DNA sequence: GTATTTTGTTTGTACATACAAAACAATAAC
DNA sequence: GTTATTGTTTTGTATGTACAAACAAAATAC
């Protein structure tokens, strides 16, 4: 039976955890933790977590955008978005305007004032990971992840 | 000034959120949410979340492994691992044996009995994402994520 | 051989995130 | 016009995850 591991001196895939490294669920989440660390650093100057930063950018560029649209663009659930907007409203960076059954989100003056800073933090983040990965790998990986997300979300 | 967008009819990258799709932080987390959904489904039959399933597999293959080693193999922080082991101990799938300042983790009989089921859930997960992505994309992506993680963790 | 530093684990706290159910508003059916 | 249906948001609850601080044991320095 050639499938049986019979050499006790070399560790099996189970022992050394090799099986983890060929599992996309595992590698994706590992990478997610790593890049989130980097992103948190890059966005520290804004006083916002990266996810909030991108949300504010979307609101600045689309004043009056609905929560539904925001959750679609960000690929997060509506309930998560509600909490995000709650927090940003608390920081007076955006404000809600109820319009029937939908909610329109507008940037405040204070929110709009962050536009440049947010842009810079994003550039800083990109520079940081490109410095470590190289532009080629970073771009290829980003594009592949985009395609894979589309396919998995079906 | 050719950089100024002067055509109001076509939306800018800021408006449509294109800038998100070229940011690795964003695409990684989007993919993470998508594949986590898939993994939760595949592991439903085990009664465990995928992360716990992999942890139990490591413990079964390495009885007496320390928490430190586990957290290194899984790339999660020690504090997170403590909570994971707490929960698995509660379910009587693993048990701790304190050895000085380190903690050795052993599978219980009940834990060992899950070996096959866990293996099958992992295979089911892989089959699920390969069905949607194709084996080529899945493998290429997994390998790239692995390399990128290594580079970012420096 | 005590004092200091290092290492491994746990606890407190906080946050992103999801799902399910509820609340609410608008529209359609009759 | 009331009732049923549909669409959007919010709330309750749960989970994974981290960081910082606390703690305990071991190792090292003197």
User: What would the average pLDDT of chain A be, to the nearest integer?
Assistant: 91
Order of strands in the sheet with the most strands of chain A? 1-3-2
How many strands, which pairing sense, and closed or not: the largest β-sheet of chain A? Answer: 3 strands, antiparallel
Globally, the shape of chain A reads elongated
Please give the domain count of chain A.
Answer: 1
The share of residues in extended strands of chain A comes to 5-15%
Biggest interface and its residues per chain?
A-B, 58 and 58 residues
**For the CA atoms, what is the radius of gyration of chain A?**
21 Å
CATH-level-2 architecture of chain A: Orthogonal Bundle
Order of helices and strands of chain A: HHHHEHHEEHHH
CATH topology of chain A: Arc Repressor Mutant, subunit A
Question: How helix-rich are the residues of chain A, as a percent range?
Answer: 55-70%
> What is the strand tally of chain A?
3
Pfam families (chains A, B): MarR
Keywords (chains A, B): DNA-binding, Transcription, Transcription regulation
Organism (chains A, B): Paenibacillus cookii
InterPro entries (chains A, B): HTH_MarR-typ, WH-like_DNA-bd_sf, WH_DNA-bd_sf
